[in-house]
Amino acid sequence: MTSTASATPERYWDDAREGDSCLSPEYAVTEARINAYAELTGDFTPVHVDEAYAKTTPFGTRVAHGLFGLSIADGLKTQSDYRFVPGMSLGWTWDFLLPIRIDDVVRVRFTVGTMRLSKSRPGWGIVVLPSELINQHGEVVQRGEHRLMIPRRPGTF
Questions:
Q1: How confident is the model at residue 7 (pLDDT cuts 50, 70, 90)?
Q2: Are 64 and 100 in contact (CB under 8 A)?
Q3: What is the per-residue pLDDT across 99-149, written as a single tens digit (0 to 9) for each?
Q4: Percentage of the chain with pLDDT > 90?
Q5: Of 100, 93, 92, 94, the residue nearest 141 (C-alpha)
């Protein structure tokens, strides 16, 4: 998909279809961004911020925080051509499969997995988005599902 996210209309729950999928724009994981994430969260675990220490680990170098990867995936979804009208996140299940290294370039691929009407909020629907964070080598470094409650199109319920 080549158009910019800002030129793409946001979708209501009613506009989505199971099986719809999207590949996000790219995101470069830099040393500065890893350091900024450490500052933001207060997570200064040495494998993320101390190269001398990180060389002694099985990774052999500094790696990004696992939750930074999840945060990147979530942010990339909002920049994608396939976006929803703002709703509510109901939660994530997420697995860290491979390290994310400095200078990796990642993208998120997500699919509309399942859809149902909300039982507790009329006018809303729930979507489950199976998602994969993929590096420049095509390796899935993280994956999981995001559950979202999305508004229905006004006048359709």
A1: low
A2: yes
A3: 999 999 999 999 999 999 999 999 999 999 999 999 999 999 999 999 999
A4: 92
A5: 100
Residue 5 predicted with pLDDT over 50: no
**Which of 8-46 are b and which e, b meaning 16 or more Cβ less than 10 Å from the residue's Cβ?**
eeebbbbbbeeebebbbeebebeeeebeebbeeeeeeee
> What count of other Cβ atoms lies within 10 Å of the Cβ of residue 55?
12
DSSP assignment of 1-60 equals: --S-GGGSPPBPGGG--TT-EEEPPPEE--HHHHHHHHHHH----HHHH-HHHHTTSTTS
Contacts of 11 (CB under 8 A, 6+ apart): 82, 83, 84, 85, 150
Report the C-alpha gap between 40 and 133 in whole angstroms.
22
Those residues whose C-beta lies under 8 Å from the C-beta of residue 68, and which sit 6 or more positions away, are 29, 33, 34, 37, 100
